[in-house]
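ingest -> fold -> write
write: protein_1
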Amino acid sequence: MTERIAPRDSVALMDGYHSPQLDVAVRLNTNESPEAPPEAFTRALTARIADVDWNRYPSRDAAELRTRIAALYGLSAGNVFAANGSNEVLQTLLLTYGGPGRRAAMFEPTYALHSHLSRISATTVVEAERGPDFAIDLDVVREVLAEHQPSVVFLCSPNNPTGVVDPPETIRTVLDLVADHGGLLCVDEAYGQFAEFSAVELLGEDVPLVVSRTYSKTWAMAAARLGYLLGPRWVIAELEKVVLPYHLDAMTQIAGLVALDHLSEMQERVERLRSERQRVSAALSELPVDVWPSEANFVLFRPQERSGDQVWQGLVDRSVLIRNCSSWPRLEGCLRVTIGTVAENNRFLESLREVLQ
Protein backbone atom coordinates (compact mmCIF):
# COMPACT_ATOMS: atom_id res chain seq x y z
CA MET A 1 0.00 0.00 0.00
CA THR A 2 1.30 3.42 -0.93
CA GLU A 3 2.21 5.51 2.08
CA ARG A 4 -0.05 8.54 2.43
CA ILE A 5 1.49 11.98 2.42
CA ALA A 6 1.13 13.70 5.78
CA PRO A 7 -0.03 17.30 6.24
CA ARG A 8 2.22 19.89 7.83
CA ASP A 9 2.91 19.09 11.47
CA SER A 10 1.04 22.18 12.62
CA VAL A 11 -2.06 21.09 10.67
CA ALA A 12 -1.90 17.46 11.79
CA LEU A 13 -2.06 18.54 15.43
CA MET A 14 -4.89 20.99 14.84
CA ASP A 15 -8.57 20.59 15.58
CA GLY A 16 -11.02 21.93 13.01
CA TYR A 17 -13.45 24.71 13.86
CA HIS A 18 -17.01 23.45 14.06
CA SER A 19 -20.35 24.67 15.38
CA PRO A 20 -22.81 21.82 16.04
CA GLN A 21 -26.13 22.02 14.21
CA LEU A 22 -29.02 19.96 15.54
CA ASP A 23 -32.60 19.55 14.34
CA VAL A 24 -34.37 21.78 16.88
CA ALA A 25 -37.27 24.23 16.93
CA VAL A 26 -35.21 27.16 18.24
CA ARG A 27 -31.59 27.57 17.10
CA LEU A 28 -29.70 30.22 19.05
CA ASN A 29 -26.12 28.98 18.91
CA THR A 30 -24.34 30.65 15.98
CA ASN A 31 -25.08 34.39 16.39
CA GLU A 32 -27.02 34.56 13.13
CA SER A 33 -29.72 37.14 12.57
CA PRO A 34 -33.12 35.69 13.50
CA GLU A 35 -34.72 37.72 10.72
CA ALA A 36 -34.17 37.46 6.99
CA PRO A 37 -33.49 40.56 4.87
CA PRO A 38 -36.64 42.34 3.63
CA GLU A 39 -38.55 40.89 0.69
CA ALA A 40 -37.54 43.90 -1.39
CA PHE A 41 -33.92 42.78 -1.01
CA THR A 42 -34.74 39.30 -2.32
CA ARG A 43 -36.68 40.67 -5.28
CA ALA A 44 -33.93 43.10 -6.23
CA LEU A 45 -31.23 40.45 -5.82
CA THR A 46 -33.13 37.99 -8.01
CA ALA A 47 -33.53 40.60 -10.74
CA ARG A 48 -29.83 41.54 -10.66
CA ILE A 49 -28.65 37.94 -10.75
CA ALA A 50 -30.70 37.34 -13.91
CA ASP A 51 -28.35 39.73 -15.72
CA VAL A 52 -25.09 38.01 -14.69
CA ASP A 53 -22.84 36.96 -17.57
CA TRP A 54 -22.13 33.48 -16.26
CA ASN A 55 -19.44 32.78 -18.84
CA ARG A 56 -17.36 35.71 -17.60
CA TYR A 57 -15.28 36.10 -14.48
CA PRO A 58 -16.61 38.48 -11.85
CA SER A 59 -15.06 41.87 -11.19
CA ARG A 60 -11.64 41.03 -9.85
CA ASP A 61 -11.27 44.08 -7.61
CA ALA A 62 -14.97 44.37 -6.65
CA ALA A 63 -14.57 48.09 -7.22
CA GLU A 64 -18.28 48.99 -7.13
CA LEU A 65 -18.89 47.08 -3.91
CA ARG A 66 -15.79 48.49 -2.24
CA THR A 67 -16.74 52.02 -3.26
CA ARG A 68 -20.24 51.64 -1.79
CA ILE A 69 -18.94 50.14 1.46
CA ALA A 70 -16.32 52.87 1.75
CA ALA A 71 -19.00 55.56 1.39
CA LEU A 72 -20.65 54.30 4.61
CA TYR A 73 -17.54 55.34 6.53
CA GLY A 74 -16.37 58.37 4.57
CA LEU A 75 -13.50 56.41 3.03
CA SER A 76 -12.38 55.51 -0.50
CA ALA A 77 -12.44 52.15 -2.25
CA GLY A 78 -8.70 51.91 -1.66
CA ASN A 79 -9.42 51.66 2.08
CA VAL A 80 -11.64 48.58 1.70
CA PHE A 81 -10.79 44.92 1.21
CA ALA A 82 -13.74 42.58 0.58
CA ALA A 83 -13.69 38.80 0.85
CA ASN A 84 -15.73 35.65 1.52
CA GLY A 85 -16.76 36.41 5.07
CA SER A 86 -14.62 38.11 7.68
CA ASN A 87 -12.80 34.80 8.20
CA GLU A 88 -11.23 35.04 4.74
CA VAL A 89 -10.43 38.66 5.55
CA LEU A 90 -8.54 37.56 8.67
CA GLN A 91 -6.87 34.66 6.87
CA THR A 92 -5.62 36.97 4.13
CA LEU A 93 -4.34 39.42 6.74
CA LEU A 94 -2.33 36.65 8.41
CA LEU A 95 -1.03 35.29 5.10
CA THR A 96 0.19 38.80 4.36
CA TYR A 97 1.57 39.97 7.70
CA GLY A 98 2.02 36.70 9.58
CA GLY A 99 3.72 33.46 8.54
CA PRO A 100 6.87 31.59 9.62
CA GLY A 101 9.03 33.56 12.03
CA ARG A 102 6.23 36.00 12.87
CA ARG A 103 3.81 36.15 15.77
CA ALA A 104 0.17 37.05 16.30
CA ALA A 105 -1.08 38.04 19.77
CA MET A 106 -4.60 37.62 21.11
CA PHE A 107 -6.19 37.94 24.53
CA GLU A 108 -8.21 34.96 25.68
CA PRO A 109 -10.99 34.08 25.82
CA THR A 110 -11.76 35.48 22.39
CA TYR A 111 -12.82 34.44 18.90
CA ALA A 112 -11.33 31.01 18.21
CA LEU A 113 -10.55 31.75 14.56
CA HIS A 114 -7.89 34.30 15.52
CA SER A 115 -5.63 31.56 16.84
CA HIS A 116 -6.89 28.89 14.39
CA LEU A 117 -6.16 30.99 11.31
CA SER A 118 -2.82 32.04 12.74
CA ARG A 119 -1.79 28.41 13.04
CA ILE A 120 -3.04 27.61 9.53
CA SER A 121 -0.84 30.41 8.19
CA ALA A 122 2.16 29.08 10.21
CA THR A 123 2.12 32.18 12.39
CA THR A 124 3.27 31.63 15.97
CA VAL A 125 0.37 32.17 18.37
CA VAL A 126 0.90 34.24 21.52
CA GLU A 127 -2.04 33.82 23.89
CA ALA A 128 -2.34 36.23 26.80
CA GLU A 129 -5.01 36.43 29.48
CA ARG A 130 -7.87 38.86 29.93
CA GLY A 131 -8.83 39.98 33.41
CA PRO A 132 -11.41 38.14 35.54
CA ASP A 133 -14.15 40.36 34.09
CA PHE A 134 -12.89 39.53 30.56
CA ALA A 135 -11.55 43.07 30.11
CA ILE A 136 -8.19 43.80 28.46
CA ASP A 137 -5.40 44.30 31.01
CA LEU A 138 -3.12 46.98 29.58
CA ASP A 139 -0.19 45.86 31.74
CA VAL A 140 -0.50 42.41 30.15
CA VAL A 141 -0.58 44.02 26.70
CA ARG A 142 2.63 45.92 27.47
CA GLU A 143 4.35 42.74 28.64
CA VAL A 144 3.27 40.73 25.59
CA LEU A 145 4.35 43.36 23.10
CA ALA A 146 7.68 43.96 24.82
CA GLU A 147 8.53 40.25 25.06
CA HIS A 148 7.16 38.90 21.77
CA GLN A 149 6.86 41.91 19.44
CA PRO A 150 3.98 40.37 17.47
CA SER A 151 3.45 41.42 13.87
CA VAL A 152 -0.33 41.28 14.29
CA VAL A 153 -2.32 42.00 17.46
CA PHE A 154 -5.99 41.05 17.63
CA LEU A 155 -8.71 42.71 19.65
CA CYS A 156 -12.31 41.57 19.29
CA SER A 157 -14.85 44.20 20.28
CA PRO A 158 -17.59 43.32 21.09
CA ASN A 159 -15.67 40.22 22.08
CA ASN A 160 -16.88 36.78 21.08
CA PRO A 161 -17.91 34.79 23.10
CA THR A 162 -18.12 37.18 26.07
CA GLY A 163 -19.91 40.19 24.52
CA VAL A 164 -17.60 42.57 26.38
CA VAL A 165 -16.60 45.80 24.61
CA ASP A 166 -13.13 47.33 24.85
CA PRO A 167 -13.46 50.99 25.92
CA PRO A 168 -12.20 53.59 23.44
CA GLU A 169 -9.31 54.54 25.72
CA THR A 170 -8.19 50.90 25.87
CA ILE A 171 -8.17 50.53 22.09
CA ARG A 172 -6.29 53.83 21.71
CA THR A 173 -3.66 52.74 24.22
CA VAL A 174 -3.19 49.33 22.58
CA LEU A 175 -2.93 51.03 19.19
CA ASP A 176 -0.19 53.35 20.49
CA LEU A 177 1.71 50.39 21.92
CA VAL A 178 1.42 48.43 18.68
CA ALA A 179 2.56 51.44 16.64
CA ASP A 180 5.59 51.91 18.90
CA HIS A 181 6.97 48.46 18.07
CA GLY A 182 6.02 48.41 14.37
CA GLY A 183 3.11 45.96 14.42
CA LEU A 184 -0.43 46.01 13.07
CA LEU A 185 -3.57 46.11 15.22
CA CYS A 186 -6.68 44.34 13.93
CA VAL A 187 -9.93 45.15 15.71
CA ASP A 188 -12.48 42.48 14.84
CA GLU A 189 -15.90 44.18 14.81
CA ALA A 190 -18.07 41.36 13.52
CA TYR A 191 -20.69 42.65 15.98
CA GLY A 192 -19.66 46.29 15.73
CA GLN A 193 -23.06 47.69 14.73
CA PHE A 194 -24.53 46.43 18.01
CA ALA A 195 -22.08 48.53 20.08
CA GLU A 196 -21.83 52.25 20.81
CA PHE A 197 -18.15 52.75 19.87
CA SER A 198 -16.28 51.66 16.76
CA ALA A 199 -12.54 51.70 16.16
CA VAL A 200 -13.31 52.89 12.62
CA GLU A 201 -13.04 56.46 13.88
CA LEU A 202 -9.35 55.82 14.70
CA LEU A 203 -8.39 54.81 11.15
CA GLY A 204 -5.82 56.84 9.25
CA GLU A 205 -3.23 56.43 6.50
CA ASP A 206 -0.39 56.67 9.02
CA VAL A 207 -2.13 54.51 11.64
CA PRO A 208 -1.29 50.75 11.80
CA LEU A 209 -4.92 49.81 12.37
CA VAL A 210 -7.43 47.70 10.43
CA VAL A 211 -11.05 46.98 11.35
CA SER A 212 -12.85 43.87 10.09
CA ARG A 213 -16.62 43.57 9.72
CA THR A 214 -19.11 41.13 8.24
CA TYR A 215 -22.46 41.04 6.48
CA SER A 216 -23.38 37.84 8.34
CA LYS A 217 -24.78 39.36 11.53
CA THR A 218 -26.29 42.83 11.22
CA TRP A 219 -27.06 42.53 7.51
CA ALA A 220 -28.75 39.11 8.06
CA MET A 221 -26.68 37.62 5.24
CA ALA A 222 -24.80 34.68 6.77
CA ALA A 223 -25.61 32.62 3.66
CA ALA A 224 -23.80 35.08 1.38
CA ARG A 225 -20.39 34.81 3.11
CA LEU A 226 -19.31 38.41 2.69
CA GLY A 227 -16.98 40.37 4.92
CA TYR A 228 -14.68 43.33 4.61
CA LEU A 229 -11.75 45.11 6.18
CA LEU A 230 -11.20 48.85 6.52
CA GLY A 231 -7.68 50.18 6.77
CA PRO A 232 -4.89 52.28 5.26
CA ARG A 233 -4.44 52.03 1.50
CA TRP A 234 -0.98 50.53 1.91
CA VAL A 235 -2.39 47.60 3.87
CA ILE A 236 -5.21 46.98 1.39
CA ALA A 237 -2.74 47.00 -1.51
CA GLU A 238 -0.70 44.24 0.13
CA LEU A 239 -3.78 42.11 0.84
CA GLU A 240 -4.80 42.33 -2.81
CA LYS A 241 -1.45 40.77 -3.75
CA VAL A 242 -2.13 37.72 -1.58
CA VAL A 243 -5.80 36.92 -2.12
CA LEU A 244 -6.72 34.49 -4.90
CA PRO A 245 -7.82 36.03 -8.21
CA TYR A 246 -11.57 36.39 -8.70
CA HIS A 247 -12.11 35.14 -5.14
CA LEU A 248 -15.35 37.11 -4.68
CA ASP A 249 -18.02 35.70 -7.00
CA ALA A 250 -20.56 37.76 -8.92
CA MET A 251 -23.57 36.77 -6.79
CA THR A 252 -21.81 37.71 -3.55
CA GLN A 253 -20.81 41.09 -4.91
CA ILE A 254 -24.35 41.76 -6.10
CA ALA A 255 -25.83 40.69 -2.77
CA GLY A 256 -23.50 43.08 -0.98
CA LEU A 257 -24.51 45.95 -3.25
CA VAL A 258 -28.25 45.29 -3.00
CA ALA A 259 -28.03 45.08 0.79
CA LEU A 260 -26.59 48.60 0.89
CA ASP A 261 -29.83 49.84 -0.66
CA HIS A 262 -31.60 48.68 2.51
CA LEU A 263 -29.52 50.42 5.14
CA SER A 264 -32.50 51.71 7.12
CA GLU A 265 -34.00 48.22 7.41
CA MET A 266 -30.67 46.90 8.70
CA GLN A 267 -30.46 49.63 11.31
CA GLU A 268 -34.03 48.97 12.44
CA ARG A 269 -33.29 45.24 12.76
CA VAL A 270 -30.20 46.01 14.84
CA GLU A 271 -32.21 48.22 17.17
CA ARG A 272 -34.82 45.49 17.66
CA LEU A 273 -32.11 43.01 18.57
CA ARG A 274 -30.46 45.45 20.94
CA SER A 275 -33.77 45.95 22.70
CA GLU A 276 -34.30 42.20 22.91
CA ARG A 277 -30.76 41.75 24.23
CA GLN A 278 -31.56 44.07 27.10
CA ARG A 279 -34.78 42.20 27.84
CA VAL A 280 -33.11 38.77 27.78
CA SER A 281 -30.21 40.00 29.93
CA ALA A 282 -32.63 41.43 32.48
CA ALA A 283 -34.58 38.16 32.58
CA LEU A 284 -31.38 36.16 33.03
CA SER A 285 -30.31 38.39 35.92
CA GLU A 286 -33.39 37.20 37.82
CA LEU A 287 -32.38 33.53 37.50
CA PRO A 288 -29.66 31.58 39.37
CA VAL A 289 -27.03 32.30 36.70
CA ASP A 290 -24.08 34.66 36.38
CA VAL A 291 -24.54 37.03 33.42
CA TRP A 292 -21.93 39.15 31.66
CA PRO A 293 -22.86 42.51 30.11
CA SER A 294 -22.96 42.32 26.32
CA GLU A 295 -22.97 44.78 23.44
CA ALA A 296 -23.26 42.05 20.80
CA ASN A 297 -26.24 40.00 19.60
CA PHE A 298 -25.61 37.30 22.21
CA VAL A 299 -25.26 36.94 25.98
CA LEU A 300 -22.82 34.80 27.96
CA PHE A 301 -24.02 33.28 31.22
CA ARG A 302 -23.05 30.57 33.71
CA PRO A 303 -25.54 28.49 35.73
CA GLN A 304 -24.79 28.69 39.44
CA GLU A 305 -26.33 25.45 40.70
CA ARG A 306 -26.06 23.06 37.74
CA SER A 307 -23.30 22.32 35.26
CA GLY A 308 -23.27 24.01 31.88
CA ASP A 309 -23.43 20.61 30.18
CA GLN A 310 -26.57 19.66 32.14
CA VAL A 311 -28.32 22.92 31.34
CA TRP A 312 -27.33 22.77 27.67
CA GLN A 313 -28.67 19.22 27.35
CA GLY A 314 -31.85 20.16 29.18
CA LEU A 315 -32.46 22.93 26.67
CA VAL A 316 -31.77 20.60 23.73
CA ASP A 317 -34.28 18.16 25.20
CA ARG A 318 -36.78 21.03 24.96
CA SER A 319 -35.74 21.69 21.33
CA VAL A 320 -33.72 24.83 22.12
CA LEU A 321 -30.08 24.95 20.96
CA ILE A 322 -27.57 27.42 22.38
CA ARG A 323 -23.74 27.36 22.35
CA ASN A 324 -22.09 25.18 24.97
CA CYS A 325 -18.86 26.90 25.98
CA SER A 326 -18.51 24.99 29.26
CA SER A 327 -15.52 22.94 28.11
CA TRP A 328 -13.66 25.88 26.59
CA PRO A 329 -10.54 27.12 28.39
CA ARG A 330 -11.34 29.98 30.81
CA LEU A 331 -15.11 29.53 30.27
CA GLU A 332 -15.84 26.58 32.52
CA GLY A 333 -19.58 26.09 32.87
CA CYS A 334 -20.48 28.95 30.53
CA LEU A 335 -23.22 29.00 27.89
CA ARG A 336 -23.86 31.57 25.15
CA VAL A 337 -27.28 32.38 23.74
CA THR A 338 -27.85 34.26 20.50
CA ILE A 339 -30.61 36.86 20.61
CA GLY A 340 -33.49 35.61 18.47
CA THR A 341 -37.01 36.77 17.78
CA VAL A 342 -39.31 37.67 20.65
CA ALA A 343 -40.98 34.26 20.37
CA GLU A 344 -37.65 32.41 20.25
CA ASN A 345 -36.31 34.31 23.23
CA ASN A 346 -39.47 33.59 25.19
CA ARG A 347 -39.16 29.89 24.37
CA PHE A 348 -35.52 29.93 25.51
CA LEU A 349 -36.27 31.73 28.79
CA GLU A 350 -39.23 29.48 29.59
CA SER A 351 -37.17 26.36 28.86
CA LEU A 352 -34.24 27.65 30.88
CA ARG A 353 -36.47 28.29 33.89
CA GLU A 354 -37.73 24.71 33.67
CA VAL A 355 -34.22 23.29 33.43
CA LEU A 356 -32.91 25.36 36.33
CA GLN A 357 -35.76 24.20 38.56
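write: protein_2
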Amino acid sequence: MDFFNTLEIQCLLQLIELLEQQRSQVDAKVEQLMNAIPHHIITIPGIGQVTGAMLLAEIGNINRFPALEQLVAYTGIDASVFKTGQFEGDETHMSKRGSHYLRYALWQAATASLLHNPELKQYYDKKRAEGKQHGVAMGAVCHKLLSRIFVIMKEQRPDVTH
Protein backbone atom coordinates (compact mmCIF):
# COMPACT_ATOMS: atom_id res chain seq x y z
CA MET A 1 0.00 0.00 0.00
CA ASP A 2 2.89 2.36 0.77
CA PHE A 3 4.26 1.91 -2.75
CA PHE A 4 1.02 3.17 -4.33
CA ASN A 5 0.85 6.20 -2.06
CA THR A 6 4.43 7.11 -2.96
CA LEU A 7 3.75 6.58 -6.66
CA GLU A 8 0.60 8.70 -6.47
CA ILE A 9 2.48 11.53 -4.75
CA GLN A 10 5.28 11.37 -7.36
CA CYS A 11 2.72 11.53 -10.19
CA LEU A 12 0.97 14.49 -8.59
CA LEU A 13 4.26 16.33 -8.11
CA GLN A 14 5.17 15.75 -11.76
CA LEU A 15 1.74 17.01 -12.80
CA ILE A 16 2.17 20.16 -10.71
CA GLU A 17 5.58 20.75 -12.27
CA LEU A 18 4.13 20.34 -15.78
CA LEU A 19 1.26 22.74 -15.02
CA GLU A 20 3.71 25.33 -13.66
CA GLN A 21 5.79 25.06 -16.85
CA GLN A 22 2.69 25.49 -19.00
CA ARG A 23 1.55 28.48 -16.94
CA SER A 24 4.98 30.08 -17.41
CA GLN A 25 4.70 29.53 -21.17
CA VAL A 26 1.24 31.09 -21.27
CA ASP A 27 2.41 34.07 -19.16
CA ALA A 28 5.35 34.62 -21.53
CA LYS A 29 3.03 34.53 -24.56
CA VAL A 30 0.60 36.97 -22.90
CA GLU A 31 3.50 39.33 -22.14
CA GLN A 32 4.69 39.06 -25.76
CA LEU A 33 1.20 39.87 -27.05
CA MET A 34 0.76 42.75 -24.59
CA ASN A 35 4.06 44.25 -25.73
CA ALA A 36 2.87 44.07 -29.34
CA ILE A 37 -0.20 46.28 -28.82
CA PRO A 38 -0.30 49.91 -27.69
CA HIS A 39 -1.90 50.24 -24.25
CA HIS A 40 -1.35 51.98 -20.93
CA ILE A 41 -3.47 49.81 -18.68
CA ILE A 42 -0.55 48.23 -16.84
CA THR A 43 0.65 51.67 -15.71
CA ILE A 44 -2.07 51.43 -13.04
CA PRO A 45 -0.58 49.97 -9.86
CA GLY A 46 -2.05 46.54 -9.23
CA ILE A 47 -2.69 45.67 -12.88
CA GLY A 48 -0.14 43.29 -14.35
CA GLN A 49 0.26 41.78 -17.79
CA VAL A 50 -2.25 38.94 -17.41
CA THR A 51 -4.97 40.94 -15.66
CA GLY A 52 -4.37 43.81 -18.08
CA ALA A 53 -4.78 41.43 -21.02
CA MET A 54 -8.05 40.13 -19.57
CA LEU A 55 -9.36 43.65 -19.05
CA LEU A 56 -8.38 44.78 -22.55
CA ALA A 57 -9.83 41.67 -24.17
CA GLU A 58 -13.13 41.94 -22.33
CA ILE A 59 -13.56 45.70 -22.76
CA GLY A 60 -12.55 45.63 -26.40
CA ASN A 61 -12.89 48.95 -28.21
CA ILE A 62 -13.43 51.53 -25.48
CA ASN A 63 -15.18 53.85 -27.93
CA ARG A 64 -18.25 51.60 -27.91
CA PHE A 65 -18.87 53.02 -24.42
CA PRO A 66 -19.59 56.77 -24.78
CA ALA A 67 -19.95 57.15 -21.00
CA LEU A 68 -18.45 55.50 -17.94
CA GLU A 69 -21.91 54.42 -16.76
CA GLN A 70 -22.27 52.22 -19.83
CA LEU A 71 -18.98 50.46 -19.10
CA VAL A 72 -20.00 50.07 -15.46
CA ALA A 73 -23.28 48.45 -16.55
CA TYR A 74 -21.47 46.21 -19.06
CA THR A 75 -19.14 45.11 -16.27
CA GLY A 76 -22.10 44.37 -14.02
CA ILE A 77 -20.91 46.39 -11.02
CA ASP A 78 -23.83 48.81 -11.18
CA ALA A 79 -26.48 48.73 -8.47
CA SER A 80 -29.74 46.91 -8.94
CA VAL A 81 -32.73 47.57 -6.72
CA PHE A 82 -35.44 45.01 -6.09
CA LYS A 83 -38.69 46.66 -7.13
CA THR A 84 -42.14 45.22 -7.82
CA GLY A 85 -45.44 47.06 -7.96
CA GLN A 86 -45.57 49.51 -5.07
CA PHE A 87 -42.71 47.83 -3.18
CA GLU A 88 -39.17 49.04 -3.54
CA GLY A 89 -36.41 47.34 -1.56
CA ASP A 90 -34.03 49.48 0.43
CA GLU A 91 -30.97 47.34 -0.24
CA THR A 92 -29.03 47.51 -3.47
CA HIS A 93 -26.90 44.73 -4.85
CA MET A 94 -24.38 44.49 -7.63
CA SER A 95 -26.40 43.69 -10.76
CA LYS A 96 -23.85 41.14 -12.03
CA ARG A 97 -25.28 41.41 -15.51
CA GLY A 98 -22.77 41.69 -18.30
CA SER A 99 -19.37 40.10 -18.62
CA HIS A 100 -18.47 37.94 -15.65
CA TYR A 101 -14.92 37.60 -17.05
CA LEU A 102 -14.52 41.37 -16.98
CA ARG A 103 -15.98 41.54 -13.48
CA TYR A 104 -13.58 38.80 -12.34
CA ALA A 105 -10.55 40.56 -13.86
CA LEU A 106 -11.61 43.87 -12.34
CA TRP A 107 -12.08 42.27 -8.92
CA GLN A 108 -8.61 40.70 -9.21
CA ALA A 109 -7.12 44.07 -10.15
CA ALA A 110 -8.90 45.77 -7.26
CA THR A 111 -7.62 43.15 -4.83
CA ALA A 112 -4.04 43.62 -6.07
CA SER A 113 -4.51 47.39 -5.96
CA LEU A 114 -5.06 47.22 -2.22
CA LEU A 115 -1.46 46.02 -1.95
CA HIS A 116 0.15 48.22 -4.62
CA ASN A 117 -1.96 51.37 -4.83
CA PRO A 118 -1.97 53.50 -1.64
CA GLU A 119 -4.76 55.75 -2.94
CA LEU A 120 -7.15 52.85 -3.53
CA LYS A 121 -6.13 51.22 -0.23
CA GLN A 122 -6.98 54.47 1.56
CA TYR A 123 -10.32 54.61 -0.27
CA TYR A 124 -11.08 51.01 0.76
CA ASP A 125 -10.15 51.77 4.38
CA LYS A 126 -12.42 54.83 4.31
CA LYS A 127 -15.35 52.73 3.12
CA ARG A 128 -14.68 50.13 5.82
CA ALA A 129 -14.50 52.90 8.46
CA GLU A 130 -17.93 54.06 7.25
CA GLY A 131 -19.22 50.64 8.26
CA LYS A 132 -19.36 49.09 4.80
CA GLN A 133 -18.83 45.35 4.53
CA HIS A 134 -15.77 44.05 2.67
CA GLY A 135 -17.72 43.20 -0.49
CA VAL A 136 -19.39 46.60 -0.61
CA ALA A 137 -16.06 48.38 -0.08
CA MET A 138 -14.45 46.23 -2.79
CA GLY A 139 -17.33 47.08 -5.13
CA ALA A 140 -16.59 50.76 -4.55
CA VAL A 141 -12.88 50.17 -5.24
CA CYS A 142 -13.82 48.30 -8.44
CA HIS A 143 -15.94 51.24 -9.56
CA LYS A 144 -13.15 53.73 -8.86
CA LEU A 145 -10.60 51.52 -10.62
CA LEU A 146 -12.89 51.04 -13.62
CA SER A 147 -13.31 54.81 -13.95
CA ARG A 148 -9.52 55.15 -14.02
CA ILE A 149 -9.26 52.41 -16.66
CA PHE A 150 -11.97 54.15 -18.69
CA VAL A 151 -10.10 57.49 -18.70
CA ILE A 152 -6.74 55.90 -19.50
CA MET A 153 -8.16 53.93 -22.40
CA LYS A 154 -10.20 56.86 -23.74
CA GLU A 155 -7.30 59.32 -23.56
CA GLN A 156 -4.68 56.71 -24.54
CA ARG A 157 -2.27 57.86 -21.87
CA PRO A 158 -0.51 56.33 -18.88
CA ASP A 159 -1.85 56.56 -15.33
CA VAL A 160 -0.53 59.68 -13.61
CA THR A 161 -2.37 59.34 -10.29
CA HIS A 162 0.34 57.47 -8.41
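write: annotation protein_2
Residues 38-155 form one domain.
The chain has two domains: 1-36, 38-155.
pipeline exit 0
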